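Put briefly, the fold is written as integer tokens. One such record reads:
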Amino acid sequence: MMTLSDTLARLRPRKKQEDNESGSDAPENELQRTLSTSSYMQRRRNIYVNMDLPPHEYDEHGERIERHFVSNRIRTAKYTPLTFVPKNLFEQFRGVANLFFLFVVILQCIPIFGVTEPAVSALPLIAILVITAIKDAIEDWKRNQSDQRVNHAKTRVMHNWRNVNTPIETQGSWHYWHLFLGLLATLAGMENKYAHGYRMAVLARKNDAKKANAPIQHPPHQDASTSQPVNAQGQIQQRVPSMSTASTSTANDTQERFSQPSRSNSLLKTMRHRSDTIRSLSSIFRPVKREPYRPGAIPHSVLYRTTTNDTMATTGGASTHQQAILPHNGTQTSLVPPMHTEDTSLFGGRRPSTLHPVQTTCSINPSSCGARWKDIQWQDLHVGDYVHIRNDEPAPADIVILATSENDSICYIETQNLDGETNLKVRQGLPGTADMQSVHDCEQASFYIECEPPHVNLYQFNGVLRWTIDAKETNTMRSGVSHEKADAINYNNILLRGSVLRNTDWVIGIVVYTGNDTKIMLNTGQTPSKRSKMAKKTNPHVIANFVILAVITIVSSVLDSVYFYGGGSSRYFDFGIEGTSASYSGFLTFWVTLILYQNIVPISLYISVEIVKTFAAYFIYADIDMYHEETDSYCIPKTWNISDDLGQIEYVFSDKTGTLTQNVMEYKKCTINGVSYGLGKTEAQLGAAKRVDTKMVDEKRDVLDVQDHETGVRVHTLADHEEITHPHHDNHDDGDDDDADTDDTTTKHNSMGTDGGKTAAAATTAANGMAGDGRSNDGDSDDRSSKTDDSDDDELALPRKDMMAKQAALFKNRFASSKPTFVDPRLFEDLGLKDAHANAIQHFFVSLALCHSVIAERADDDSDLINYRSQSPDEAALVATARDLGFVFLGKQGQVAHAEIMGEKKSFDVLNVLEFNSTRKRMSVIIKPHDSDRIVLLCKGADSVIYERLCDDFGPQRDLEASQARLREETATHLEQYANEGLRTLCLSYRFISMDEYMPWQRRYTDAASSIINREERVDAACEEIEQNMLLMGGTAIEDRLQEGVPETIAELAKSGIKLWVLTGDKTETAINIGFACNLLTTDMDLIVLKATSRDDTFSQITAALERTDHAVEKSEKDDDKKESNFALVIDGTTLKYALEPATREQLLSLGMRCKSVICCRVSPKQKAQVVALVKKGLKVMTLAIGDGANDVSMIQEANVGIGISGLEGRQAVMASDYAIAQFRFLRKLLLVHGRWSYLRIAETIMGFFFKNIVWTFVLFWYQIFCQFNGTMMFDYALVTLYNLVFTSVPIIFLGIWDQDLSSRISLRYPELYRMGLRDDKFKTWRFWLTCFDAIFQSVVCFFFPYMMLVAGNPDTSGHDGNGVYEIGTIISSVTVCVANIFVVFSLYSYTWIQAVVISLSILVYYAFIAIYAQFNTFLFAGQIRLFGNGTYWLVIILTVTAAFLPRVAAKYYLHQYYPYDNDIIREKELVLKKRRSSTARHSDSHLADYNINDIKLEERRPSTKHV
């Protein structure tokens, strides 16, 4: 037979062949027969452990095929020491402005252009580049520090052990060159084989240095004659040769090993002994007894390679049938009774180490062991390494779980770093590796893992762990027979990088993905790059400045050519500098004036705006009103450059569950065997009552039944609960009379029970003030109550007490909570009858207690407090309610679930768990009670899914068929009513499975779970086979209550002009009633509901809806009705699918525009993103998406602004968002206050920058009239350089940071103020051109006023000339600096001491610079400080500044009086209200309060033509 070593010998060079002649005898096709031919799986990853590599890992020359796995070192930083300078410069010079100024600096270095100090001319550009680089460096340094903390974190791997997946580094002739290339690659942040080799060499050098510096470890005192170790008691210890040849470990290393408990000697028979033990040596002298070959005789473990006599003796008693149903994955268990102790240790429980129970080298002298656990840094971890993780330690890479410290090889993890969920999750070790407990077990195990290539799906993993049973077995009659065993690896067998081990002592795993291949790194890709709307609109303005620059430079060059041959003596004094021809002179003048007018392009605009937005982000983060104390969460800006977009949002797209609601589920009602149970009202019922304007009559023993005819919601008031009588249920499966009784009972139990009734006023108060005001601590003058309505709890107090008393009369439930959410005393009345209906109730709640994946947490076994933790809040609520009602899930031990059913403890074998996913929309468990031989399938899921899988062939069981038909109809009616009440519903069903049916299905399911290709599809198909012909039990109804302040927030957003669209997966009826409860839908809205089943039906319904809205608009215009039409659109997922097609998408968009609110029901994550894209691109408006779950990520990334709520569904939405908040109500202040402030501040900042640059540039342009446009400067060039950088930038930046038109309190009081951003009042194009014209006018005043007043000469007592070029230039420059800074004064809304100090200092800095600079006596600039000592100068500057600002002040006054902005109106109103203090003033205040901003037609207030 051709062996693997023979095959490798043929492929390898001769020297390698000689070294491997003693290799393994495994067949050549041992691994190749499992290879896949699909292109995807050809990229699969194979990881080998303690085995020779198969032939396909070598090329035709016998060399190892290069398989470079990425390093575990991560780098999220943008720069490295080698790339920072070039990469940062490249990033900065991608901006047109920076590129332009670089070009200008290069021009100034050419002497012919006459710049005397080119180095000074480069200062502004250098300053901008340096400031930006420092900012980028600080940000990247923080990211790098974070990377270093992660990369240098410690983990434990197996040391002195060969990882065959890592190639051996050889030192060839190019070794040092490769190390040099690796160093460069590391500095450049590249990941390749050279960087990998360099890091391996550095690591090896560190290890050598540690070994050299380590203290010598002296062995224990030995007897010289025997050379045997002597222990502390003086007894000679037996020395056994060590298997490892590596160096000995230190004393500290010995403390890192597992401490193994002593085990019974009988367990020795169940182990495969290592070849270096005494027991294995003694087995040489035993006679070999050849037994018949049995494939099942070898235990399902990688530690058992052959069928030794001991294992044959142990396993011989297990029948083939028993072994066929032994545990094979984490969701299966044995159907047979427990085996003997030895068998249990093999097949069901934990086996001790294969080494420590016997006296071996490591048990006698641990310091002589080579293999050991050693701490290394995360970045030094490699694919294929063994990893040992201890409790509360994070996983350093993606790891397959081999074994854990728990008996059933499970572990508990927390995935908060991955998805934000803090609840514990269960992960399962592989059955074939569950016995591995020590480093020596890891040495002994030989297997390989075949898995899929890395991908981004966090919730999917397909792989197989395979190992081969040795063919060299000689203890059986069929020696030489080899076969392969396998364990399927799925998502539940994986520890993802970032997950933290909890409540588990240790886990041993094997690394499969490292570094950037791990799922968390693949999911941390860059979110789409977003630029604010104002940043995009600024670019055309910058281009306009370039156009103005081009115009004035061309004009200057043309006029210079015209004046070239003009009269005068200038040609005699230019010494040929201007050329010999007019055209050449004009050419030179073009470039000279380009340098001269360069400041018209605002070089500091971009960096200044970034500074302003950075402070805005900080203020948002520091706002205490948006701090959530319960979760210790702030509002976290993750994208800093779009804060002004928060002030221009027109459409908000919101998820419902966890965003509008709390995602804290409360079990409210249920229907069991056709009878509805549960008292209390829901928020949706209050919303329905509000809609129909129900008046609840407070009359004892009266029941008022009001129905909302559009949604079918029924609102009831039950006066006296105690006097209601209920019919007796003898048998609900027989007779029409019983059916009638059931119907009557059902009707009564659908009523909303209240104790003592409730007045209409109280109902209205509860509906209006349900969740509090939701406003920030600034408060306002509203008198609305902010406290939560707790009337429901008061009403249910007596029924709850009655229910608990009736429960105590039946049995004792020590685990019940003090305040269960489900209340109905009649449940225990019916349960106490002990009839068929009582059995149905018991089976129903047993199903709730067992059909789940929750984790039960108890302080100890005697504790009465049980907490349930689950990935789904719904599931935890179901199990908690079952606990409160006496059906207590105590927990699981292995695959045995323990429960206390009505005071009696019971156990169930959990054979399979068919997990929930978005495709199946259901979950099932297959159990076998210990007190019964029947196998039962319990299933819960969406009603549509369950009903499709109910039994429809009952054979001769006519009674069962009739009862099931009745039950389906009644349950469907109840579930529909629950949905109308805003509750989330689930159906429960069951079926019995025979052993003959289960065993073949179990094999098919195991094969599907073991497949590596299309595993999900095959598993789903197998689940579909067994989840058929089920019997219906009933349904549950859970309420997800609204978050605090949601109704108020939605109402305020609607007033501000923002349209809210809710995109949810709930049913239409549930969404409608939640819409009314949260003020999304109001009683005056005309509701349009679209429910279609086909493409044609969708088209017809949308067309009809458009005609309906058109008709309403025409009618209102005909009747001269000024009231706007109020429409609300509700559309389900199927209709939306067809409506988003190209043929109807425009019609859908048109219909949505005509509606004030839109609710999309039953939508998928993809549809959410499509709806956002439809509105954003179709209407060209600003959109905001807010959600809290992973299904909201695509919507959040599609919107202009994405907001993630850090709720209970995880932090994936937060990680993909631009802003993270804890509650939906914080959206109110984020938009109406911070968003509006940012919009106004950024708009004024940008306009201020354009103004000051145009003023300065045109002052230089006007001087060219007096120097024949030859580009002469009237200022010293230092002033040109520092004008933007020092003299004028700081005040305008402080305006953008601190200015406020109104306080946050007043801004929240008048949400209509937000419409200024929606209309873009402050950043219209005409306002930019008006600013430009104003700047040009003021530049005329700044130049010609001083010129005309001082042209005749400035009187100076010292006799100095005062009208020279640089003297006049200095005066004009000072006037221009003052005008640019005083412009900020006229742009401010609030005048504070900070603004006064900054503006004053900015002007004083100019004078200080002149005073200092004038002391350096240069040829052109000296003594200018004397100009400021003359009174004439100060008179000139006062007159000039006054004349410059007169038109602006007059225009602002006119617009303020006749075309005021919204904030101008409110500022004046609040100013008047503030000054009225007396009682007369209070009367005037109430009269003035009637003047509301709503009375003004905001959209028609200020036509742009009148402004111009």
About this structure: The first helix runs from residue 4 to 11. The two ends are 96 Å apart (CA to CA). The CA atoms of residues 872 and 1433 lie 77 Å apart. The mean pLDDT is 75.
